[in-house]
Amino acid sequence: MIGINDISAPEVEVEIDEDLFLASYKHLLEPNNIDIEFVWGGRDSGKSHFTAQKLILDCLQLKYFRCIMIKKTYESIKDSQWQTIKDIVEEWGLSAFFQFKVSPLEIICTNGNKFISRGCDNAPKLKSIRNPSHAWYEEGDQITIEDFTTISTTLRTNKGKVKQYFLFNPELPKGVMDKKNFWLYKNYFAGTNDKNFTQSIIYEINSKPHTVTYRSTHTTYKDNLENVTADRIAMYENLKVTNPNKYLPYCLGEWGQYSNELPFFYSYNHDKHYNFEQYRVSGDYEFVIGFDFNANPTSAVLGQFNRHKITWNVFDVIIADEMNNYNVSPLAAVCLQIKEKYIETGLIPAYKIRVTGDASGKAGSADRQKAQTYYSIIASYLKLNEAQIIIRNANLTHIMSGEMINEVLHKIPKGHFNLFDVPDLEADIKRAFPDKDKSLNDAKRTFGLHILDAWRYLMDSWFGHINNHYTGSIEEVKNNIRVYAKRIENLNKVA
């Protein structure tokens, strides 16, 4: 077990039986200068148990110790980190030295050291973290980049460096279809094929270099066989046949693709609608740009409608944030890219351009140029007249927008509606899911979906703008789509 004499002193001598720890984690017990420990892999690999063990030792041995237990939701901490520590403390016969409080969720040691809890569902509480020595993230795959950034920038202390343990199972979160689009993989794991490694990131703070060193420790249930029942092993291995998407992260500890079981755009089909070829822009056809005016970034989706062949082609996505190369507002930067890429090259005459987008962009005091609307700014940069800007008085609801687009994707035959090599847009389409109100609000809060919004406005200009006016009738829109589908059918018969 574990031997301890007096815990009333700030520093305590603890006798450790190394057989208490799994062999795959023993290197984490050694003194080191690692800032972030990524402990990840498959289910039942002992990640949480070991981390709790290590932090209990630190709590006993260090002169100053304040560990923040972090999870996506505050209430779930009690049944995970808090309970795991309690179980180990009891197993080691140390209950007399720890007080387990429920309100608030805290664990206080008789030497003055403590564990406190924070959930990512309470942003003000995240920002109130003071002088931590350690941070323990549980189920880190559910934590967003925004959560992690908020916490990381808040973990300021005058007690030295903050030691962070970031535990996760590599199942991609809801709506993320490719690991390359997941912030955790992109920022920390993309540079190597190794699962166990140590790397450093150097960046500047106040013109001075600052180094963050992180280490990856990867395990699966096979590293914890003495504590995993045969039934659970059989359950994991059975996933290889029944659910390969979950077999990868659960059993092998590999990055597993998320499968959106309830897509908002359920009629979207990659084989039917996606084209990897480079689209050839033609000056003969109307050139439509859909804008989303999220301040940072601003997004634009570009498309052309060929009235003769009855084809709608989406072929480019342009985005810009505050840190753009033009040193202008995000909207201005998007406009300048469009101008340089399509107008100044002679690909598209300015009079062929039509602009649509978020109806709120018609409001005054937009962008950095306070006297203008978003659309007057666009018109100024692209040299457009009022007739070239086509916007609803108020945006379609998410529900109506979804009905319209699903009808297009379902009814318009293959080859007549195409996405040409726009992976970021396709990723947004696949991520989108309906919430309990059948809207996109939850999906937008999770993923932003700004490119998707620009595309929705573009689609509305094609299919919701009927006989030179926008309609609010979804039945009228659907009838319009059926008319197009019939025209395509007749066209193909002649061909």
Summarize the structure.
With 495 residues, the chain is of the alpha/beta class. The chain has helices at 47-61, 78-91, 123-126, 145-154, 183-188, 230-242, 244-252, 270-273, 330-343, 374-382, 398-411, 423-431, 441-447, 450-463, 474-494; strands at 2-4, 14-16, 36-41, 66-71, 98-101, 106-109, 114-119, 134-137, 163-168, 197-205, 208-219, 274-275, 286-292, 298-306, 311-320, 353-357, 417-420, 465-466, 469-470.
List keywords for this structure.
single chain, 495 residues, alpha/beta, Nucleotidyltransferase, domain 5, 9-stranded mixed β-sheet, 6-stranded mixed β-sheet, 33% helix
Topology:
Layout: E1 2-4, E2 14-16, E3 36-41, H1 47-61, E4 66-71, H2 78-91, E5 98-101, E6 106-109, E7 114-119, H3 123-126, E8 134-137, H4 145-154, E9 163-168, H5 183-188, E10 197-205, E11 208-219, H6 230-242, H7 244-252, H8 270-273, E12 274-275, E13 286-292, E14 298-306, E15 311-320, H9 330-343, E16 353-357, H10 374-382, H11 398-411, E17 417-420, H12 423-431, H13 441-447, H14 450-463, E18 465-466, E19 469-470, H15 474-494
Parallel strand pairs: 3-9, 3-11, 4-7, 4-8, 8-9, 12-17, 13-16, 15-17
Antiparallel strand pairs: 1-2, 5-6, 6-7, 10-11, 13-14, 14-15, 18-19
Helix pairs in contact: 1-2, 6-7, 9-10, 11-14, 11-15, 12-14
